[in-house]
Amino acid sequence: MTAREEVLARIRTALGGRTAEGTAPPADAVPRGYRTQGELGGTVLLDLLAERLRDYGCTVRRSAPDEIMIAVGEALGQRGARRIVVPPGLDLAGLPAGVDAIADDGLSPAALDAVDGVITTAAVAIAETGTIVLDGSSGQGRRALSLVPDYHVCIVRAGQVVALVPEALARLDPSRPLTWISGPSATSDIELDRVQGVHGPRTLEVILVDP
Predict the structure, then answer these.
(1) CATH classification of 40-209 is 3.40.50.10420, yes or no?
(2) What is the pLDDT of residues 136-150, one digit of tens each?
(3) Longest dimension (CA), the chain
(4) CB 112 within 8 A of CB 103
(5) Nearest 5 degrees, angle CA 95-CA 121-CA 70?
(6) Does pTM surpass 0.85?
C-alpha cells in the first residue's frame, strides 16, 4: 500500500466507509441551535444599531425620511467635503451649494483617492454586531467605492435593519459581491497600537433613517 492509498483509507475509515452502492454515507445533521430571529424591533432595534456603530467609532445621525438631505448636508459641511462620489442609482438632489457630486463611471483608484468621500446606501444592517452590508446593487456601487475614499457616508433605512446575522443572510444574495463593514477600517500592530484607514475609509458616518 502506498502512502497515498493509506491516507485515503484512513479518510474512508474516519467517514464510516461506503454504502453497498459505493457512495459515501449521509453526513450527520449539523446542529442549528443558534438564534435565527431577533426579538427586538422598532426604535429599540435602531437604538441598538446606533449604539454598536458608535462603539466602533462611527458617527451616527438620525434622520426622518423627508430630512435625509438635510442630514447629508450637515455631515458634508462638518467634514468640509466638497467633491463626493455618487454611485449609479442614488439620487442626491438637493446637495448643499458648493458640493460637487461626481458620478462613478469607472473612476480609477487614483481618482477615487483624490475625492473627499463617497455616499452610498446599504443592502442590510445588523444591529447586534453593528455591521452594514453592501451588495453592489443600485445606490451602492462597486466595492472600490467603499474601500478607496477616506470618508464614507452610508444611508441606512429602518426597513433594512435586522437584529441578527442569520436574518441578514436570509436577505442577501450570496452570488453578489458582499462587503461587510463593522466600523471604520482599522487594525493593530504587534504593540496593539490601533491604526484606522488601513484597507478602507478612515471615517464612516451613518445616516440612520427612522421609520
Answers:
(1) yes
(2) 999 999 999 988 999
(3) 78
(4) no
(5) 30
(6) no
